[in-house]
Amino acid sequence: MRQSLLALLARGPAHGYELKQDLEQLLGSAYPQPNVGQIYVTLGRLEKSGLIEGEDVEQASRPNKKVYHLTDAGWEALRAWFEETSDEPRVRDEFFMKVALAPQSGLADQISLINRQRRQYLNTMRQLSKLAAAEDRDNRVAHLLIEGAMLHLQADLDWLERCQEELEELE
């Protein structure tokens, strides 16, 4: 959330609710909708860390609103974030730990775990398909997000198939 807010503030000053709306519009309904409270807490932390500054702006018929902008340190942090690669290997996969430890615990069958997880992935794939059909066709970012999630799910389904084949050979 921190970097997302910094990136949105790179285009210019904004207040918290405006940033929430921008994220929702950009990412569509497939991405978990940010909680406005979470956004304001994150903005407070970014301000305390010196990455943004807030300024109270008077409004005629409403309470003042706080508009935030990036500081030099915020610009630098944002540049550094865009330079970093995303290296997130799934070596610490909780599901795989369940499969690996099921025989030792005696509480679960590995193939049953795989089948249950497969059903979950297929249900999620159906939900994403419905989201894609309902999403505004012009929102390419949202469609790419959904497509990426579906491709990851397909890879996970293929991996589950591989796990099942290997485990059945051991029996």
Number of helices, where a helix is a run of at least 4 consecutive DSSP H or I residues = 7
Distance between the termini: 45 Å
Strand count, sense and barrel status of the largest sheet are:
2 strands, antiparallel
Radius of gyration, taken over Cα atoms and rounded to an integer in Å: 22 Å
In terms of DSSP E residues, the strand content is 5-15%
The amount of helix comes to: 55-70%
Mean pLDDT: 90
The tally of beta strands, per DSSP, is 2
Shape: elongated
Order of helices and strands: HHHEEHHHH
- Major sheet strand order: 1-2
Class from secondary-structure proportions: mainly alpha
Low-confidence stretches: none
Would you write up a description of this structure?
By secondary structure, this protein is mainly alpha-helical. It has seven helices and two strands. Strands 1-2 form a two-stranded antiparallel sheet. A hairpin with a 7-residue loop joins strand 1 and strand 2. The protein is elongated. The mean pLDDT is 90.
Give a topology summary:
Elements: H1 2-9, H2 16-27, H3 36-48, E1 52-57, E2 65-70, H4 72-83, H5 94-105, H6 110-134, H7 140-170
Helix pairs in contact: 2-3, 5-6, 6-7
Give a concise summary.
The protein is mainly alpha-helical. The chain has seven helices and two strands, in the order H-H-H-E-E-H-H-H-H.
